[in-house]
Design brief:
Layout: H1 2-15, H2 23-32, H3 36-40, H4 44-54, H5 59-76, H6 80-87, E1 93-96, H7 101-106, E2 110-113, E3 121-127, H8 135-140, E4 142-152, E5 155-159
Parallel strand pairs: 1-2, 1-3, 3-4
Antiparallel strand pairs: 4-5
Helix pairs in contact: 4-5
Length: about 160
């Protein structure tokens, strides 16, 4: 009897998935349809809140979703220096060796994973150990005007 009760409680918990479970994915889908200017602005969440209210959510529910998004993004956010650099760039092709590919992709970048043998990119992001290769090889991966960023802990070093 206890096992049956425990199973019913577990199943009801699964069935009662909180609305904020999908809040981040919905936000990223909406963000992907916005212009570069909106994606780079510090006001994207405010604009998304307006969007939620226009869709019929009341202010309290919209605020709850925005809070959930902020909390989830804080858990998966890349180093602040990388956010600053990426926000200053026009989206394009990125080569990522740092595990930030999903974050870049949600911001409109077409991301390839390191190592890549062919191609050129607008942005190459690597960790310190990966840049032990010749700086000329790293520069050869860049399209004209592209940037290479090396992450050293929470510090970013830019190579042009």
């Amino acid at each position: 009897m206890r096992l049956l009760l425990a199973l019913l409680i577990a199943l009801s918990a699964i069935a009662q998935t909180p609305a904020d479970l999908y809040a981040l994915e919905e936000y990223h889908a909406w963000l992907g349809r916005q212009s570069d200017a909106v994606r780079r602005s510090g006001e994207a969440l405010d604009k998304y809140r307006e969007h939620l209210i226009e869709r019929g959510l009341d202010h309290a529910d919209a605020d709850s979703q925005i809070l959930a998004i902020r909390e989830q993004e804080a858990e998966e956010a890349p180093p602040p220096c990388l956010v600053t650099i990426v926000n200053r760039l026009r989206t394009g092709k990125a080569l990522d060796g740092t595990g930030n590919g999903a974050w870049l992709s949600r911001r409109g970048w077409k991301v390839s994973a390191w190592p890549a043998h062919n191609g050129k990119w607008d942005l190459v992001i690597l960790r310190t150990g990966q840049t032990a290769q010749s700086p000329h090889r790293i520069r050869a991966l860049l399209l004209p005007g592209g940037k290479a960023v090396t992450l050293d802990g929470s510090r970013c070093v830019i190579t042009r």
